[in-house]
Structures are given as structure tokens and as C-alpha cells.
Write a structure and sequence with these properties.
By secondary structure, the chain is an all-beta fold. Helix content is 1%, strand content 47%. The protein has one helix at residues 412-415, and strands spanning 20-31, 34-42, 52-58, 65-71, 78-86, 102-109, 116-123, 131-132, 148-155, 160-167, 170-176, 183-188, 197-208, 214-224, 234-243, 248-250, 256-257, 265-269, 281-285, 300-301, 308-314, 320-326, 334-340, 350-352, 361-368, 375-381, 386-392, 397-401, 418-421, 429-436, 439-444, 449-454, 463-466, 475-483. The strands form 7 sheets. It has a 6-stranded antiparallel β-sheet, with no helix packed on it. It binds beta-D-fructofuranose.
Length: 489
């Protein structure tokens, strides 16, 4: 048959659980040459349920080896989101042998009362086996319903641990000498940022720009509703400012989002990346609470975004912003397979998935000349369905339209156009588009803005093409990088 029914939405180069439900990334720590990734996991079904931490490890952020479930619910409750650190100086005293202890700091969620407290677990064998601390919790609940998602960092200047915690509509910052005794230092955010929903999953870290200027970055995820910014449902905002070891001051004068697409939530960064590497690496859950439980995957639900490197950049107006780009390791998975000759008229750009290995999973690198065009569209699809990515230079806006992309009627928000303001300023505009079976991730101007979106074709997509209505030579270059054979199952 010419039209193939699409029944496998499992991506090739995005992390997915082998079976059952996954949400937030948790406990990301780099240790002994391995990137550890834990995640919110429900092993008995494909919708959210009593939360566990499942574990997977990688040396390159793309080939993952699953390690099974490491933290199970107990009498204090479900194991909600949190972080992990390498306790290099054994400050918590958990060390029993010669290995540096890994310590996880997570939220215990009492399922009947909803009470949320912070607890510890530790490993003395590089993350293979974990024990919960016998005196949990280490941070009790002060009588606030939403009190969760601890992210802990070692603060070099004051030689102590700092925890950021999401507390309903703000972030609380705590300090500790030993990960066990926590003292409240300050609060942030009641009057800052966007408040169209509960605050969740914070992160706090220093970052230097190319000139060596250091700023502190706060990430905050937002459990929004259908009408929340920027495009409804779940989203992650960020603040850039100063942190003196006790309180954080934001210098934002606008709301900034880690992703203007709709399927990147609860993302945080890896701890313990060596100074010599210098990278700040991020991963997010590639879904949205508005429809995560009902997307038409079967046997398993949800994947992670591609791991992204965060860079601090000074804009032309002297404001600092973040760029999020795919980690360099992605280049080891792909080969340039098809290059469009410079200045090919856009209406002749049509890439058949048969021409590339693993059609449906590839990367597009392109440069466009904004002055040459008012509006253009990149479509992925087949004869019946398509997902379109458009840019209007006149409106200064990117849009992703997935209303005709396949299965869409399971949720109203899923059908709505996704928008992102962007005014091109340079002579050329670089775009990177990652496509992987059921997702697109668009990186505008080297990650200055990002749009991540899922889609669920009913029939296999067959092509990528540029807007057919234009003779214009606005495409300066375009290369399709397809997956290497070794990446294909
Ligand atoms: C964010 C979140 C967290 C919580 C976890 C529960 O997606 O709601 O705030 O810890 O998911 O699974």
C-alpha cells in the first residue's frame, strides 16, 4: 500500500522509557564519566500514578542504558521531583567505603493528605543502589500545599549547599552545611515573572558569557492552564540576575521563556559537570500537562527533549538572555546527507523521506535571508496531513500549526497554533530543525528562541518541503543531516 498507517511514535534519538509512564527529569548528575538521568515514573500504567524514580545512564547523552527503578514510594509518600549531587567532601556523612556518595534530594508527597516534605536518599556505589536516609524528612512542611521539587547546588563562595524549592507562587532559598539541616535564607518571585499557574521545578546556577561576565540564572516551570503564557499549559521561564549566596535578584525586564513551543516542561540542569568541561546542560520533559495523559502513544508515554547546552549571551540592547542549543554530541549521530545548492528557489526544495536514512528522524540546518521574503513555510507531511512551521518577517513571528498533523482531536490546545515573536536583525538567520518521528524542535538563531512541539501522524510522513508559492531565493543554504545507520533500530 502506498499509504502506511503510522503506529510507532517512538523517536530514535530522544530518550523514552521502554514501557509505561514518564514525566519530569530528576536527579541529573554527572559522575565518573557518566551522565545520570532519573525521572518521574509510574511502572504500572501509561498514565500518571504513584511516583517512583527510574534511572538511566549515558556517556554521550544519546545512548542510554536503563538501570531500573531506584526509589519506590514508602510510608512518607510518593517520590516526587528533585535533584542529586556528588557529596565530594562527605558533608552528610553517608560515606561507607571509598566511593564519593551520591545524594538525592527529593519531595515526598503523602498521597492521602497531599503533604509535601523534602527527603534524602544516598548511594555509595556510583548510583547502582540507593538507601533512604533514616531520619527523613530533612525539611518539614510549614503548612503550604505546594512545597516541592528541591534543586540543590554546592555554593563555592560560602562553602555550603543551597536549595531552591518551589512554594506555590514563589521560590524559597535554603542553605545547609550537610544536606540534612536546612535554614531559610530568602524568598524570590512573588512579584517577579509570570504567574498564570503554580510554580514548580526550579533551578539556580551561575553561567559566564564569552567575555567572562558571570550571571546567576533561575529556571522556574509553570503549571499553567489553557490560557497561560506563552502558548497554554505547561512552560518554563527563566530569570537572569545576581545571587550573593543568600538571595537572588532578577534583572529581567521582560518575561523570558526557555521554550516558546508547548512541549518542554520541568527541565533542569546536570550537576557536577567538571569545571574543565564548563558546559551547563539541560533536559526537559517533552510534553504538556494539558494532554500528556491522553496523547496517542501506546505501551509507554512521553519522551525527553534533546539535551541542550545553555549559553549566556549579551544582546544588542545590553540585556542578558539565554540561548538553548542541542548539545554537540548530536553531531556524532548524524551525517550530512543532502545539501541544497545555494540559492535554489524555495519552490524547488522538496526532500523525500525515501532519500534519507530513517526518514522521519533527521536534522535540518538552514540559513535564510530575511530581506528576501515576507513569509515562508516549512511543511512536513504526506498527501493527507501536515505540520507547518511558518515565519512572517513582517509580523516578526514564528508559528507552528499542527491542526492537520494527524491525531489532534484528543485536546483543544493541541490543535491551537503555537506562536513565538521573533524579529530577525541580521542579514541571515540560522535555523536548526530537529525532527524525530513525533517531535519538532526549532532552534532560532542558534537557540536564541526555541519551539518544541509533538505531533502524531495517522499515516507515515513522506516529505519535507518549503512553501511552494515562491520563486524567491531566500534560502542561502540548507543541509539535511540524517541519522547514521548505527542509530536505527
Ligand atoms: C511537575 C510536577 C512536579 C512534581 C511532579 C509529580 O511536572 O508536577 O511539581 O514533583 O511533577 O510527578
Amino acid at each position: 500500500a502506498d499509504v502506511m498507517y503510522h503506529h510507532n511514535f517512538r523517536p530514535y534519538y530522544h530518550y523514552t522509557p521502554q514501557a509505561n509512564w514518564m514525566n519530569d527529569p530528576n536527579g541529573m548528575v554527572y559522575f565518573d564519566g557518566k551522565y545520570h538521568l532519573f525521572y518521574q515514573y509510574y511502572p504500572n500504567g501509561t498514565t500518571w500514578g504513584p511516583m517512583h524514580w527510574a534511572h538511566t545512564v549515558s556517556t554521550d547523552l544519546f545512548h542510554w542504558e536503563d538501570q531500573g527503578i531506584k526509589l519506590y514510594p514508602d510510608e512518607l509518600g510518593y517520590i516526587f521531583s528533585g535533584s542529586a549531587v556528588a557529596d565530594l567532601n562527605n558533608t552528610a556523612g553517608f560515606k561507607t567505603g571509598s566511593e564519593t556518595p551520591l545524594v538525592a534530594i527529593f519531595t515526598h508527597h503523602q498521597n492521602i493528605t497531599g503533604r509535601q516534605v523534602q527527603s534524602l536518599a544516598y548511594s555509595n556505589d556510583k548510583g547502582d543502589t540507593w538507601a533512604k536516609y533514616e531520619n527523613n524528612p530533612v525539611l518539614d512542611n510549614p503548612g503550604i500545599a505546594d512545597f516541592r521539587d528541591p534543586k540543590v547546588i554546592w555554593h563555592e563562595a560560602t562553602q555550603r549547599w543551597i536549595m531552591v524549592l518551589a512554594v506555590y507562587d514563589h521560590i524559597r532559598i535554603y542553605s545547609s552545611p550537610d544536606l540534612k539541616a536546612w535554614e531559610l535564607e530568602s524568598e524570590f518571585g512573588k512579584n517577579e515573572g509570570y504567574h498564570g499557574g503554580v510554580w514548580e521545578c526550579p533551578d539556580l546556577f551561575p553561567l559566564k558569557d564569552e567575555q567572562g561576565t558571570e550571571k546567576w540564572v533561575m529556571l522556574v516551570s509553570l503549571g499553567g492552564n489553557e490560557y497561560s503564557e506563552p502558548n497554554g499549559g505547561s512552560a518554563t521561564q527563566y530569570f537572569i540576575g545576581e545571587f550573593d549566596g543568600s538571595s537572588f535578584v532578577s534583572e529581567n525586564d521582560e518575561i523570558l521563556w526557555a521554550d516558546y513551543g508547548i512541549d518542554n516542561y520541568a527541565g533542569v540542569t546536570w550537576s557536577n559537570i567538571p569545571e574543565t568541561d564548563g558546559r551547563r546542560l539541560f533536559i526537559g520533559w517533552m510534553s504538556n500537562w494539558a494532554y500528556a495523559n491522553v496523547v496517542p502513544e501506546s505501551g509507554w508515554r512521553s519522551g525527553m527533549t534533546v539535551p541542550r547546552e545553555i549559553k549566556l549571551k549579551k544582546r544588542q540592547d545590553n540585556r542578558y538572555i539565554l540561548h538553548f542549543s542541542p548539545v554537540d554530541e548530536l553531531n556524532t549521530l548524524v551525517d550530512p546527507q543532502k545539501t541544497i545548492a545555494p540559492e535554489t528557489p524555495a519552490n524547488q526544495i522538496h526532500v523525500d523521506y525515501h532519500e534519507i536514512i530513517a526518514g522521519g528522524s533527521y536534522q535540518v540546518e538552514m540559513e535564510i535571508i530575511p530581506a528576501e521574503i515576507d513569509q515562508f513555510t516549512i511543511s512536513l507531511g504526506n498527501e493527507l496531513e501536515d505540520l507547518t512551521i511558518s515565519y512572517s518577517t513582517t509580523d516578526g513571528e514564528f508559528t507552528i500549526d499542527r491542526s492537520n498533523s494527524g491525531h489532534v482531536t484528543f485536546n483543544n490546545l493541541f490543535m491551537r497554533e503555537i506562536r513565538c515573536d521573533y524579529q530577525a536583525t541580521g542579514a541571515t538567520l540560522p535555523l536548526t530543525l530537529l525532527v524525530d518521528q513525533n517531535s519538532v524542535e526549532l532552534f532560532i538563531n542558534q537557540g536564541e528562541k526555541v519551539m518544541t512541539a509533538l505531533f502524531f501522524p495517522r499515516y507515515n510522513y513522506k516529505f519535507l518541503r518549503l512553501d511552494g508559492n515562491t520563486q524567491s531565493k531566500f534560502v542561502k543554504s540548507l543541509t539535511i543531516k540524517a541519522l547514521k545507520k548505527s542509530m536505527i533500530r
